[in-house]
Amino acid sequence: MSEPHSENPTTTPAPMPRGAVACLSAAAFGSAMSLRVSDALLPRLAAEFSVSLGTASQVVSVFAISYGLAQLLFGPLGDRFGKYRVVAWACAACALTASLCGLAGNFDLLRLARALAGATAAAIVPLAMAWIGDVVSYEERQPVLARFLIGQIAGISAGVWVGGFAADHLGWRTPYFLIGTLFAVVSVALLVLNRRLPAHALTVRRTPSGAAPASPLLRMASDFKHVVSRPWARVVLATVFLEGVFLFGPFAFIASHLHHGFGVSLSMAGSLVMLFGFGGLSYAFSAGHLVRRLGEAGLARWGGALLTLSLGIIAFAPAWQWSVPACLAAGLGYYMLHNTLQINATQMAPERRGAGVAAFAACFFLGQSAGVAITGLVVEGLGSSRAIGLGALGVLVVAVNFARLRSRQQSR
């Protein structure tokens, strides 16, 4: 049976303070930048600490692992203490952990600091999405989410570019200090705005009157059990996990592939991968039209096909110039697919939306961490071209299967 896709508020909600969504988008910018800044730094980190490229990639995978596991904490916390407030304090914590990355004196300390950075960043995007799900009706939600994701999209591009530029000109520590400063500013803005939110946007779920509060661990377990008990939620969670494996495992090695395969500088490689974000921006600005024209199943199907073609070109093109249109198209295809998964995630369990979106993000980033580890082994054994090509085929299978299941669900 299909999940309900509409909510009927009984009262006219008070207006949101100006900049409430924009500040969440800025937080998402910092989160995405923190995730992707290490991609183009990998060759420099490998040389700096005398480790292999596969070992250096652990600074990406440990971030993703801790990001995913921390969702088990932040989703229920957001439901109970206010999603906006938790995001604000998480940004303050991110300012500290990003700075610790820049201060790391050896590879083990950097790896530890990156794990802490992933854990603190875990609250930002999923809870921001869940908050938007609480205050925006389903019918209007996908374009609003797309606009919010402009920050995340731009952060992916900025992270890869800043990492590459710093690797060539500034040193590997500088990007982490820049990210820490950004988070400090955003956290202050979010805390100020949180005080101005109307009551319906605080999204705090209270313990029912007369009920004895369960322990925090039992409440969390109950929340996540409620989410995964729904068949469609299990489909969405499995799909986003596999998307993380097949797309972002290879994605972490694209800059290194261009650098080693074609001799382009790391700053140039980062600039090329940055085009992925511009492709995503084209989706963000055209989301309303694409949703109306293609529907959710069509977005997933064509997004997956575009991603597969783009990654295949990046993997096997005879010259680096082919990566220019390919990276642009990959960004468009990714957000066609991923934004469709996100809109389903916000409605998997509306009464436990924080836990539901947190479970979604946990699966996505655990998939990424698994994908980076697996792709690192494939790169060392078969080379980066085959590793990226295999990822492209996996993305196609995942996207087509989800589109098929979504069409079947909508026809019931």
Provide a short characterization of the protein structure:
The protein is mainly alpha-helical. The protein contains 16 helices and no strands.
Features:
412 residues, 80% helix, disordered N terminus, Growth Hormone, Chain: A, mainly alpha
Verbal overview:
With 412 residues, the protein is mostly helical. It has one domain: Growth Hormone, Chain: A (Up-down Bundle), CATH 1.20.1250.20. The chain has helices at residues 20-36, 42-49, 53-56, 58-81, 83-103, 107-121, 124-135, 138-170, 174-194, 216-228, 231-251, 254-262, 266-316, 323-345, 353-382, 384-410. Helix 1 packs antiparallel against helix 9 (174-194), helix 5 packs antiparallel against helix 9 and helix 13 crosses helix 16. The model is unreliable at 1-11 and 206-213 (pLDDT under 50).
